[in-house]
Amino acid sequence: MSVELDVFVGNTTIMDEEVYQLWLDGHTVNDAVKVRMEGGVMDECEASKDVLLSDTMDQYRTFQMCERLLHSPAKLANQLLFQIPPHRQIMLIERCSRDALIQLTHLFQRSHNSLFLYLFVKPPPLCYVSSHGNLFFVSLSLFRYYAFDDTFVREVLGKKLSKGTKKDLDDISAKTNVTLKSCRRQFDNFKRVFKVVEELKGPLVENIRQHFLLSDKLARDYAAIVFFANNRFETGKRKLQYLSFQDFAFCAGQLISNWTVGAVDNMVEDMDVDLDKEFLQELKELKILITDKDLLDQHKSLVCTALRGKTKVFIEMENNFKNLSRGLINIAAKLTNTKDVRDFFIDLVEKFIEPCRSDRWTAADMKLYLTHYTNSAHILDTFKHQVVWDRYMGVVKSCIFKMYHD
Amino acid sequence: MPGKLKAKIVAGRHLPVMDRASDLTDAFVEVKFGNTTFKTDVCPKSLNPQWNSEWFKFEVDDEDLQDEPLQITVLDHDTYSANDAIGKVYIDIDPLLYSEAASVISGWFPIYDTIHGIRGEINVIVKVELFNDLNRFRQSSCGVKFFCTTCIPQCYRATLVHGFVEELVVNEDPEYQWIDRIRTPRASNEARQRLISLMSGELQRKIGLKVLEMGGNAVVGYLQCFDLEGESGLVVRAIGTACTLDKLSSGSAPNTNTHMHPNTAPASNACNSPSKDGKEPVFVEDLPSSSGPPTPFRALPTSSSPPPFSPSKPCSRQSSSSDTDLSLTPKTEEPHSVRCRPGIFLCPSSPILSTDTLSLPGSGSVGCGRGSNPRATTSAPLSSIQSDSALLRKSVSFTEDLLLAASGMGSGGSAGKEAGPLRTLLRQQTQTALEQREFPFFTLTSFPPGFLLHVGGVVSARSVKLLDRIHNPDEPETRDAWWEEIRQEIKSHARALGCHAVVGYSESTSICEEVCILSASGTAAILNPRYMREGCLDIGCTDHRFEEPSPPNCGFCHIPYDELNMPFPAQLTYCYHCRRQKVPDVLFTTIDLPSEAAVAGKGCLIQARLCRLKKKAQGEANATAISNLLPFMEYELHTQLMNKLKLRSMNALFGLHIQISVGENMLLGLASATGVYLTALPAPGGIQIAGKTPGDLSSEHISSIQKRINDTIAVNKELYQINPPELAEEGVGSPIPEPRHRSRLFRSHSESSDELSELDLSHGKKDAFVLEIDDTDAVEDIHSLLIDAPPPTGFYSCNTENMPGISNWTSGVQMFTSVRVLRLSNANLTNQGLNKIFTDLCENLLKSFYFKLRSMIPCCLCHLNFTVAVPEEELIQVTVTAVAMTYDKEQTQEKTAEKPVNKGSLEAEEQLQFPLELCADSSSSNIQTASKISDTVSLFTPAAKLCQNQLLIVRSAGVGESTNISPRAASVDYGSFADRCSTWLELLRLKAHTIRRGSVKTSRRTQSLAHSVSSLERCSPLQEGRSRSLRSSRSFGGSSVTVVKMTPLSFLSGTRIIKYLGIINMFFIRETTSLREEGGVSGFLHSFIAEVFAMVRAHVAALGGNAVVSYSMKECVFMENPNKNQAQCLINVSGDAVICISETDQESSASTANTGQTGGGGTDGAT
Q1: Between these two residues, B352 and B1012, which has the higher pLDDT value?
Q2: pLDDT by residue (tens digit) across B197-229?
Q3: Contact A274, A230 (CB under 8 A)
Q4: Per the CB < 8 Å rule, is A55 touching B108?
Q5: Among candidates B847, B985, B1046 on the partner chain, residue whose Cβ is nearest the Cβ of A11
Q6: B85 by DSSP, 3-state: which?
Q7: Could you tell me the maximum CA-CA distance found in chain B, to the nearest angstrom?
Q8: pTM above 0.80, yes or no
Q9: ipTM above 0.90, yes or no
Q10: Which pairing describes strands B859-869 and B795-797: parallel, antiparallel, or unpaired?
């Protein structure tokens, strides 16, 4: 005697957020049942293991059927197969913070009598909203289909989103403790987003946000991932291991908004996945700051004057000034080479951050130094490339601030 | 009369990739109606083609309009090879054929392929121009409205109920034609879908013709079924109740029915006239207590229908019954005698046994034995001789509750006495009126108050037939004759119960190989003569006298039969309500609980489940074996029901539906009903356990079982809140039966019957059952009795339209379908083992539902409709469709008190979704008027640049102000909502420092409400426009998807149906040759059912509707062949497409209309 077939289909698609998360995390049905049993859901409604298994399988099937739609979320809005209320569609895709949901809850409770909201405090934390006679869950759990594990994305950041990389996913899975299934989903998400925005004009973040209905934060993260993948920034070297995904994402944001074509002129409808070639050419002009000895000395004295007495590591700063300045300018000058673009972050660390760190600069020291370093250049009479300098240093400065930690 | 059908193909979206090389598709569309085909241009290289075609015009006969669907095929153009079909859409244009329903069909339809499922969507507009001389419809039956709903539809009133209509059409099943061997599965499936669509159309048209002949204009309770008889063909049959309906419109009440049914004979006009005067709204739901001149039942014109049975005919038939019963076989004496046997078996004519039968209404209720015996002795004035004969002939007849003598005749109350003779006279008149009609059947299950006078009990008949090939599809006489027989039998059973009508009537079949069980059941009843009598008879004065006697809340329980000439021995008591007339101790019916009935506590779903093994056999032997088993199954199901009813301390069953399914090696029986405690009926006694053979079981054991049973009863009483009002029992002075006369209920096991004689039974009154433990089986039976787990806290369940004891529904509605198939691996199962498995299957299903729907607590599963089937030898399939509805636990009887509050706050309520473009002219005045509403929030979408002026106005009253506001959802614009949601977090962020203006109120509200109503009226075009504008404003997520609610009930809680758009009747086939890849059988069926829902929703939305009521899944036939990686499934669904608006909306929109100024209404309401 065995159950041959077992389905449950509602006119309004019911989704359990907890199961959704388990599915996203790549758990098998049996694992999911185990987790749910431990979670105590059995106590509700006197469920038995069979009931739980049947429910879990149903949910998994629903998610699988939904997955196709999730791949192009724009379709979600007018797809007909599932009656999923739209705010629920959003929840499906993006992560949503607990705070946001609680706010949402209040908003609904206050704003519309016909929305009934019940908040279950016990795990799984669920909001149950009934609107217009439709039922749906709003979740408080954190991850959604397009959410990703920072540890995982850190591993693939800057890698080519190709089949080759996909083959390595099992290693990454083992290393990061994220199930292979989940790794694949995340990887495919990156790839899908990349493929779509590659062909689109206009601002990158906005494109992602609109096309995949993601929150601003998540869209920015994806933009970072796409940007890194496109420019193949090296992030895997041992020296860069201390940097988190969020560090890189910040830097990517800086690069995107300052160094791409779209950065100069919003009206230009062009991709801002690629760096502004003209700008990179212009960066060569900055070399004068280190090749012209006068300029270099002048610059050093200006900076040292400004710094004197304001920091404990003044001596080190003074001694290292030329080295550091050479380091930064050389990075700038080399950026026309694709290879050197890839090494941008490793260069920043090797040429600048490590020397400073070995001299025990504090973050405040760093800030002070870079501020003056940048500003002093403006006072140099013979230095004519102020605009390029600002555009370059603005990004480098904030990247280094972000990256200067243990 | 011809009409012009116009279709326009607008666009497609989400098409599948048909060209691998380019990842794109070159799509074009063929539009076909009848034999005419048009084509659009090819839209090259696009997955979202815009055809924007011209209007394709078909000039056709209206007969074709009724029969044919519009067929739209989407293809991929291929220069070098044949064009590939992407999929099809069939559009039933019937709703466009009557003026009151939809005027245009316009919307996105899923493109469906029987192999691949849904593949993208297509936007189509369809219109019909009928040359509008309505009188000339009579050649076809355009204009006759069809309703699946089994009550008078909400926005109509019935001026006349004409009665039963039925029709069937047969054809060869394309699946079994020779050509099927050489064509593709896709072609075969499409041929089948198309044929069934044609047959449904034809059937509906023919029924429509009958209705017109009767002078009606509508069919209510329309029930259409398919019999897939395999080799021997395909039968599509339908039954319904012909009515003359008037549209109720607030404000304008002129009787419009004259042009609705141009055919009305002079007689009916005469009948109509009193009601036109407004004196007597006959059968009007909202005026229950009115009395006045009666409107007659129209007599059936006999010209078109088969001649009525003459009294002599059944008799002659009886003698030759062997021929009619199994027409295939010359010597069918066997099955015939077999059918009678159960009666003899149970009640061998020994006196002891008959007393036993006497004692238990339940136990004796297997038709023949029980019915024929007493009936022979009765010389009821009402029942004719033919009842007897018909009964003898027939298979199993099951007359469940014995109802007895009607009021009158020497029984109690003075009013009764006085009216007695007159009433008899009256009844005879009614009787004759009804007798003139062939079948006084009504497929309705709920009636306007006062319509139903008395309810007898359940009558049912089954017949086992051998299928043979239908030789001439145009003359489906065999099938007609089969059903005719069954109906005659039902009719005679009803007579035997002293009733002249059968209500809640339904028919069904179960087919396995060449054996077919035909079943029919209904509830014998006496209808109010007021609604029945011929118009010319004494109008007026006498009525008042008759209307007196029974109070509405118990009258229907009173026995319709003469107490002194009871057709069955039964235990009668005086009505616990009025004390004036007799009532039976239990009452079984197939109808819904009348709204006026007085009940105690809540109802609950009661199911009896049964499996019986049967030897495999062929043909006649098989039919005989099945016939042999049927009576036992009926009996045992009945016993189970009775026991479970007692266990729950209830005394009546409503919505009883007994299904018997036949498989190759077993029969499955499933009886479902809603148990309830009727306060008019006596309290049920307990259940007493008695040890039969002391040696086997210790008395300890028995007492422990007894204790468990008693505990269960106590728990159930608590659970269902059954606290019947304590009558001052003796005070009334009516004879109340002395309690605690023990009767017994013996197990229906056949072996136990020989022990009957040992029982000392006092006939007559008893209020306790004795369960006797005579062997281990009995113990198991008792265990299984106790196994039914009560629903978890917060859940209730029923299978009727209304849940007894709950009426304060809130807005949560979730309709669902669940299918479970069990494979029996163990070859040598016993009946007991099977029973256990089957019971567990049903119980586990229920448990699953409770779990899945736990978030809706407190909620009630309504209209739980279980269907069982035995698709293969070792498979049991159970299909369930039901709706979960939330209700308000707190608020109970304070409805009236809350009304004013509601009114105030409902004014304050806001339509959540309104794109500003709908009322763009008003934006300036959007937020201005101050009001008293405490908690109004206005939100502006920050991403206004994206959503082109979309403004979200969220407005409401504080929660505290009213908890009983039902949501409005006339039409929800998903598209715009999605747009807003894409900026959800911004919204939230914004909200943090929003504009929480305590007293801001948008005065536009009422206008937007008006908009909502008007947008519903011309819904589709408007949506069109809206979707387009959205598309332009945003690259994706363009058009809106209307939320379509579905429910198997005839109403949607918290809303009012303002328009019926037509019947939805769809048939789909899905087949796969890659079962594993589609996720196995479950994955396959899951997506298919989801697709069916999607297609139903799309069609409803295209009609301009926002809900489906009376939805049901008539057929779900699933076949698989895992070895070949194949599966096939057929699904037939039906329902009524409607526009419903929140009750609150309606009021305020009405007020808007009245005041005529948009801003004023809301302010008025709020202040």
Answers
A1: B1012
A2: 999 999 998 998 888 888 888 999 999 998 888
A3: yes
A4: no
A5: B1046
A6: strand
A7: 94
A8: no
A9: no
A10: parallel
